[in-house]
Design goal:
Chloramphenicol Acetyltransferase, 412 residues, alpha+beta, OB fold (Dihydrolipoamide Acetyltransferase, E2P), Dihydrolipoamide Transferase, 11 helices, 7-stranded mixed beta sheet
Length: 412
């Protein structure tokens, strides 16, 4: 019996997706719930599981194809068993003292999984599987591996500069440009395209301004150093700086409620809850998972949730629900060494806080020059809703709470 494998049901906010990887090829044995393929949308990556045990008999949409919710993707022959590849003989040069002129090809070579795009590229360039080192899961050969093999091949190095070498697949083109210099052209991922769209939306549809301040991180650093070990033993989670900033931000939002609001048409919506987005870098690009009702969370819960989101972002397993919504966002460019930046608000939110690198600087304190660990803070805001006075007061309140962390605990 043959059954259909369909694209997962997308949420209403997702129109379509792209097949970015097949983990099985036609003729492979599959087991129920085993991941067959991955589909990328502008929000998250969906995994396509096998509905039953059997053999993958047909793939209808190859890598790079655009698919819709519940579209037919492949077929499985239920209960079937994959045929074993017949043993083949591969001729090898006879060596001194070796009477055999041929020997069986290794079983491992027969088991190499090759992505469709990579297989096409190998065929076009007469590349054998033995010439390529697979970097995918289980040694799977990806198109990037084939491109690497092509670029490192002696034939490619010997090609005259007057004859541009070009290799093209459905979604990659590697070529020498008009000046004979190498270039690589790849399509923009759906996530990157969506991020670009939202950034332009924010700049075009919001009156965005940024105000700056600086905070002395010494009190937070000393408090963290004193209690870090006990905190980690008690809660089994690392104590970072982000929980301090999240707590300080929530208290500042309570005192300046306009920053926690958003514009919808001709109305202003003042949110009575605090869902804070935390910008996280992932292999697919920037994602912003949401800490919901963060005012009801303690610092250990905040740190644990951020750590969980970071791991999910790395593994591409964040759900739509985990990255949707939010009333305010915090981004930390300091982990990459940024000293100062102007973060862009995440519509329909009206504000975002930017953290930066902690840097020791000479500061004047009580009439004396001292060296202090300082951090620049940036608050970008929608001036249609938030006046400059409110924006500045909001950032000052965060600064004051971080420089006197007891205020965070006392919520004053």
């Amino acid at each position: 019996m043959t059954i259909d494998v369909k694209v997962p049901s997308f949420p209403e906010s997702v129109a379509d997706g792209s097949v970015i990887a097949w983990h099985k090829k036609v003729g492979d044995q599959v087991t129920r719930d085993e991941v067959l393929a991955e589909i990328e949308t502008d929000k998250v990556v969906f995994e396509v599981p096998a509905p039953e045990d059997g053999v993958l008999s047909e793939i209808l949409e190859n890598e790079g194809a655009t698919v819709l919710s519940q579209q037919l993707l492949a077929r499985i022959e239920v209960g079937a068993v994959a045929a074993k590849a017949p043993a083949t003989e591969t001729a090898v040069p006879a060596e001194s003292g070796n009477e055999k002129a041929s020997q069986p090809a290794s079983a491992a070579a027969n088991d190499v999984v090759i992505a469709p795009a990579a297989r096409k590229l190998m065929t076009e360039n007469n590349i054998k599987a033995a010439q390529v080192t697979g970097s995918g899961k289980g040694g799977r050969i990806l198109k990037e591996d084939v491109l690497k093999a092509i670029n490192s091949a002696p034939a490619a190095q010997a090609a005259p500069s007057s004859s541009p070498v070009k290799t093209t697949t459905a979604d990659v083109a590697v070529a020498d440009n008009a000046e004979g210099r190498p270039e690589k052209r790849v399509p923009m991922s759906r996530l990157r395209a969506r991020v670009a769209e939202r950034l332009l939306e924010a700049q075009h549809n919001a009156a965005m301004l940024t105000t700056f301040n600086e905070v002395n991180m010494k009190p937070v650093m000393e408090l963290r150093a004193r209690h870090r070990d006990r905190f980690e033993k008690a809660h089994d989670v690392r104590l970072g700086f982000m929980s301090f900033f999240v707590k300080a931000t929530v208290e500042a939002l309570k005192q300046i409620p306009g920053v926690n609001a958003s514009i919808e048409g001709s109305d202003v919506i003042y949110h009575g809850f605090y869902d804070i987005g935390i910008a996280v870098s992932s292999p697919r690009g920037l994602v912003v998972p949401i800490l919901r009702d963060v005012d009801q969370m303690n610092m250990a819960e905040i740190e644990a949730k951020i750590s969980e989101y970071a791991e999910k972002a790395k593994n591409k397993s964040l759900s739509i629900e985990e990255i949707s919504g939010g009333t305010f966002t915090i981004t930390n460019g300091g982990v990459f060494g940024s000293m100062l930046s102007t973060p862009i608000i995440n519509p329909p939110q009206s504000g975002i806080l930017g953290m930066h690198k902690i840097q020791e600087r000479a500061m004047v304190e009580n009439g004396e020059v001292v060296v202090l660990p300082m951090m620049y803070l940036a608050h970008s805001y929608d001036h249609r809703l938030i006046d400059g006075k409110e924006a500045v007061q909001f950032l000052v309140k965060i600064k004051e709470m971080l420089e006197d962390p007891a205020r965070i605990l006392l919520e004053v």
